[in-house]
Design a protein that fits this description.
By secondary structure, the protein is mostly helical. It has a domain of about 60 residues. It is about 60% helix and about 10% strand. It has 4 helices and 3 strands. It has a 3-stranded antiparallel β-sheet, with no helix packed on it. The longest helix has about 45 residues. The protein is rod-shaped. Bound molecules: zinc ion (ZN). The site of zinc ion has 8 residues, from loops.
Length: about 140
């Protein structure tokens, strides 16, 4: 056996070893993923309202709130429900007055929001949550 054959054999063996290691690593990763998946499934089964589902729900609620704020949709500060009603108190207050007042209170940046709220709150005053009964003033 010449030195070239020997070198070739060594190279082949090295390649074979590398391939086996790569295979093993891949298999290990797949196994780990499988274990993780099974664990998540088990956790979800044991605690239907916790784990990954709860995290997803939390994420969803966060996104929803961000969207509500962006759209200037009023929602209950207590339970975050949008199922709210405007309590009518001072019907004499006009839409423009309410909108203007809100605009000045909120500052120049809030004028657009104030006008929107003014339109919504033309019946005036307080908001009541139909979900939890919480009442609050429109800002
Ligand atoms: Zn509420």
């Amino acid at each position: 056996m010449g030195i070239k054959d020997f070198m070739k054999k060594m190279a082949d063996k090295q390649a074979e070893t590398n391939r086996k290691i790569a295979e093993k690593r891949e298999k290990h990763e797949i196994e780990m993923q499988e274990i993780k998946r099974k664990r998540d499934e088990m956790l979800d089964a044991m605690h239907p309202f916790s784990g990954s589902k709860k995290r997803l729900e939390k994420e969803y609620q966060k996104e929803r709130l961000e969207q509500l704020k962006k759209d200037h949709v009023p929602f209950c500060p207590k339970c975050r429900s949008t199922n709210i009603t405007f309590v009518t108190k001072k019907l004499s207050l006009g839409r423009a007055v309410v909108g203007g007042a809100i605009g000045s209170v909120a500052g120049p940046l809030g004028t657009a929001a104030g006008a929107t709220m003014g339109g919504l709150s033309s019946k005036k005053g307080k908001v009541k949550c139909l979900n939890c009964g919480h009442t609050w003033k429109i800002k």
